[in-house]
Each structure stands twice: as structure tokens, then as C-alpha cells.
Design brief:
The chain is an all-alpha fold. It contains four helices and no strands. It folds into two domains: 1-30, no CATH class; 32-65, no CATH class. It has helices at residues 5-8, 20-24, 38-50, 54-62. The longest helix has 13 residues, at 38-50.
Length: 65
């Protein structure tokens, strides 16, 4: 993905968006876990469940085709 960052990263221009390749960072599962506290995770859960049926949300987080 990083090698195709110009095509696959979100197209955003802002003061905090600096590099499409850095968007993908290391690509390891859970790499940002220490940055979120319990309140952050709860806000994420609320938003994630609002975007679609639970089976779709589960697939996005853990599923495969």
C-alpha cells in the first residue's frame, strides 16, 4: 500500500497532512493502541456502529472475503 500511496491514500490538503506514504506508517495491527484512552475507544465504537449493520462493521475490523 505504501508503494501506491499516491493512488490509495486519502486526497487531503491540510497543515497536518504532510506525506501520503506516512499515512500507511508500519501497517501493523494495533500500532496506535497506546494513543487512545477508554473515552476515545468508546467514541470510536459509537461512530463505528452508526455507519452500518453490525456484520459489516465486524467485517471491516476483522473480516476477510
Amino acid at each position: 500500500m505504501r508503494s501506491r500511496a499516491g493512488r490509495t491514500a486519502p486526497n487531503a490538503q491540510s497543515a497536518i497532512w504532510r506525506d501520503n506514504e506516512r499515512f500507511f506508517h508500519r501497517g501493523t495491527s494495533g500500532q496506535w493502541h497506546d494513543l487512545l484512552d477508554d473515552d476515545d475507544l468508546e467514541r470510536y465504537r459509537v461512530c463505528a456502529t452508526a455507519i452500518g449493520p453490525s456484520d459489516v462493521v465486524d467485517w471491516v475490523h476483522r473480516g476477510s472475503l
